[in-house]
């Protein structure tokens, strides 16, 4: 039996192989955020010369990439990326994902949107039939927090303002915004729910990645890494 950390390491290594096999030397790679993405960054570090640069989805990933010596490019400097590699908090059988547990959802969506192929890397605990057990993160402009909370409650959600772990301080994103975590929504139509939440004034972005879903899933379980395409 593998531990969750071992499963994350296995998919990080598999993603490194996937990227090196499918990307021609000199390309630019999109890289996500979180503990699985961190393992991927570390696994890729010895091969960084394969890429002319990377685009990162958070300050935390940028710091880690730079420490390894990667050239980190501004997302405004690229018009497209062959691949984007990132973790997820949930993924359903269609490849729709829920992301943002680490608070980087907006930048993740921006970089993912630039990519031809989204490679999702996660352990088997993230696989679900219906998205919504994990609260949906919604990044908001602080002055709209109360209003957006009321809208989300009308949709049936139980809303809490994200705090820094183990403290009473409000969690502030890389975009100087706040995050509302919305529990209790049964997301039977993720594409529709993603759009509906985005329509609320003051919402910057939400953690449903349904319009831009995964193209490839590398998922670690008891039998090793399974590769699936959508
Ligand atoms: C960060 C994310 C992460 O990809 C997601 O939370 C999964 O994280 P981890 O690999 O640590 O389980 O969306 O905003």
Structure description:
The protein is an alpha/beta fold and 230 residues long. The protein has two domains: 4-128 and 211-229, Rossmann fold (3-Layer(aba) Sandwich); 136-207, Alpha-Beta Plaits. Helix content is 30%, strand content 28%. The protein has helices at 4-22, 35-44, 59-68, 105-114, 145-154, 190-198, and strands at residues 27-31, 51-56, 72-73, 81-86, 90-91, 97-98, 115-123, 136-140, 158-161, 178-183, 203-206, 208-209, 216-221, 224-229. It has a seven-stranded mixed sheet. It has a four-stranded antiparallel sheet with strand order 9-10-8-11. The longest helix has 19 residues, at 4-22. The structure holds ribulose-5-phosphate. Ribulose-5-phosphate binds next to helix 2 and helix 4.
Brief rundown of the structure:
The chain is built from six helices and 14 strands. 30% of the residues lie in helices and 28% in strands.
